[in-house]
Amino acid sequence: MWGTPGTRDPRPGATSVIARNRLLRRRAPTWIFRAARSRPASDSNMWSRNDTRLRGSLSPADPPRCFAGRSRPRPTLSSSRDEPLMSCGVTFTVVDPESVATAVPQVAGIGSALRSAYRVAEVSTTSVAAAADDEVSGAIAAVFSAHARQFQALGTRAAVFHDRFVAALHGVRGAYGAAEAANTSTLGTLENAIAGVPWFSPVKDLTGRPLFGNGANGADSAAGPGQAGGSGGWLFGNGGNGGTGGPGAAGGAGGNGGLLIGNGGNGGNGGPAVANVNGGNPGSGGVGGHPGLLGHAGSDGQTGAPLSSGGGTGGGGTGGVTVISDQYGTTTIQNAYVVQNNAYNIGSGQQTITVSSTGFTITTETGSAPTDGAPLAYPSVYLGGAYGTISPNSPLPDQLSQIQTATSSISYTYPSSGTYDASYDIWLNPTPNTSTVNQQEIMIWFNHVGPIQPVGSDVGTATVDGKQFAVWEGSNGQNQVVSYVADTPINSWNDMSVLGFIDHTETVEPSVNNSWYLTSIQAGFEPWNGSVGAAVDSFSAGINGTA
């Protein structure tokens, strides 16, 4: 109690002198500002309610005393009733590291624009010419020039501050990203632990499906249909992906997602066509799994590669080739790489590629795309995963921190006509995503013909692995793109350092770091028109010495 009956002020509602003095002498406890604080409804107007016991002792300017969420007896002068003080509740801030990552280059771009403006204004403002050859004109010109120099000095300081801000923002993104990764790992461990608790076992034993958890992926088949993916838990869980079918056999169906929350699994790819199996027809892709109430359906698997148009012949005959005319048709070569037609913007046109054991050639190209927009296609060969198709025995995706060497070799044949570029596509992502578009694309233009240019704007030059490039940076609306355009055409390159380009990209795109994943290394052509005869004669890629 802060007062005694003998010292109470006789006026109604007044505070005793002793109580007031004790309150004034009382040392304010340490308290922490919160970004946001909730307040009990009963205390929403705590300083103006009809409570005369402490009136005159506390004011709206006095900070509330916080006891880390615990209740403490509230001293009173007129009763022994305990009331909880306002508690300082813990608040939470939701941060999306990917949004911060997107903001970093945008904020950096503001700094670049300001520097450009300073440079443009510097020459014409810091050395103002006098209007006439007299003292007054000279003095006026000197005043304006002095102001301009002061402005340039302030601009330099602002640029330094801006650079520090961008660096801090990048650091914040990395810190939140690391925290998110750590939490994801912890939650994944917890999820796996829960899935193994015997309490859930009876449901799975009785129905073949647990209450919670993701379905298993179906196994690939060497001589028959791919195995179907397992369904997710009855309530929550994603369906497993279907397995790839054997020669001429269908891919497995994707598993269904949970009834409440869950994505359907992707259908497995059909097996390639083989003579005397399934009538020489390729296997059909497996059907994607159904989603839950909240989720999306799995995509259907791709039809297997068609039968080769010719086999090897005796003596000096040529080896077999595969002709791909399907818009998104694929096949594999050397049991290591995927070749894709990838005619994503062909419209009513037609693109056909002929695949050999070492590469491919564009044999049909109809249609035309505006040179200030996207090309018709990107026929290419790759190591890794793209749009759900992963190369055989692939070492990708792999985290950049785990990669010591990443190299690739290629030999191109350029067509005699057409508008095109010959380029690598290197894909990076914060997660090992091989089914949808990644966040960062690195293009390496070996050659280009016609009035075309990379995405974005020219941001400088670079020497990578001994060769000179102009560097472009921008966004195509789906992902960030850094492009390296060779000063002179490159016909072939052995053991090109993929990591060299990734390391330089990290200086252009601060969001990219060693926690990201390398998902695929691709090489091919981007034709806008013509380009028949363009060929990748040979291609190889390896990660840590393994293709």
TrEMBL record:
Keyword S-adenosyl-L-methionine attached: no
UniProt KW Hydrolase keyword: yes
Annotated Gly residues bias: 280-292
Biological process per Gene Ontology, one example term: polysaccharide catabolic process
Keywords assigned by UniProt, alphabetized: Carbohydrate metabolism, Glycosidase, Hydrolase, Polysaccharide degradation
InterPro entries documented for this protein: ConA-like_dom_sf, GH11/12, GH12, PE-PGRS_N, PGRS_rpt, PPE_sf
Family membership: Belongs to the glycosyl hydrolase 12 (cellulase H) family.
Name the record gives this protein: PE domain-containing protein
Species: Mycobacterium helveticum
